[in-house]
Structures are given as structure tokens and as C-alpha cells.
Amino acid sequence: MNRLLVLTVAVAAGAFMLAMAGAETPAAPEGIVPITVPEDAELTKPLVLFPHSRHEAAELGCDACHHMWDQGMGDPVPCTASGCHDLGVAQTREEKKAPEYFRNAFHSSELMSCNGCHKARKELGETHGPTSCRDCHVEAQ
To answer: In angstroms, what CA-CA distances link 40 with 85, 86, 88?
Structure first.
């Protein structure tokens, strides 16, 4: 009985893996993608225009930024989607440190954030993105 159960689970797992391998990953957007923020966010700087194609060219996996996205299971959602980084205004010290606070998705020192990744790559002497406010938050021309 145990052998049959193990065999059944192994076959089911294998079938699932084959199905996932055959699932198409959505095409990445080309060019510049405006970063969205929650509707209630209080902005003090211009929105960031994200060079998606540069990150794709650097061969970063989609999950480097879309860490909550299950590839092959539909299109990734924006960082500020409900349940991710959707807190637009932080009222307390705890909220300001919370991963749900949209600003932390981009500015924290965690490797999953834009700034954290750029700084880590810079420290390793690798090609990296901007690490200062004015290099990301540029007035539209």
C-alpha cells in the first residue's frame, strides 16, 4: 500500500512538473514601465520610470523583483497590488518598517528591494543600478 501511495505521489509530482515546464512565461514589457504606487500614497518625488528591458538584459530572473509571483501562473501583478506592497501611508513606526509599506519595496536595504539590490551589486563590483534619489526620481521630460 505504501509503495502504491509513493508511486502515485511521484507520478503526480512528475506530471505537475512537466505541465509547469510547458507553461509559457508571459513576455516581459519592453522599454520603460512606470512604477505604480497605492492610490493613497503621499508622494514627495516624481514617480520612477523603470527600465524593465535593462533588468531583463542583465539576466535577472523575474522572481528577483516579482518574488510573490508563481511563474507560469498568469501575469505578474504590480508591486502595489492588494496583499503585496499596498500600504500607501504609514502611520506608525511599525508600519514604516513593514514590507507592506510600498516605499520599502523600492528603498529598503533588503536584497528584494531596488535600492538593496543595486547597493549589493555595487559592493560586489558588479554592474548596478542607481543608488541615489535623484537618479531614479527624475522629472518627466
So the answer is: 12, 9, 5
Tens-place pLDDT, residues 91-105: 999 999 999 999 999
Q: What is the structure's pLDDT at 26?
A: 67
Give the side-chain half-sphere CA count within 13 A for 36: 11
Calpha distance 67→116 (Å, rounded)? 14
Please give the residue that has the higher pLDDT: either 15 or 38. 38
Q: Looking at residue 123, which CATH number applies to its domain?
A: 3.90.10.10
Alpha carbon distances (Å) from 75 to 64, 67, 110, 119:
15, 13, 24, 28
31: number of Cβ within 10 Å = 10
Find the domain containing 115 and state its range. 28-136
The C-alpha cell 512537466 sits at 18
Q: Tell me the residue length of the chain.
A: 141
Give the tens place of pLDDT for each residue, 104-118. Answer: 999 998 888 999 999
Residue 119 lies in a domain: yes
83/5: higher pLDDT: 83
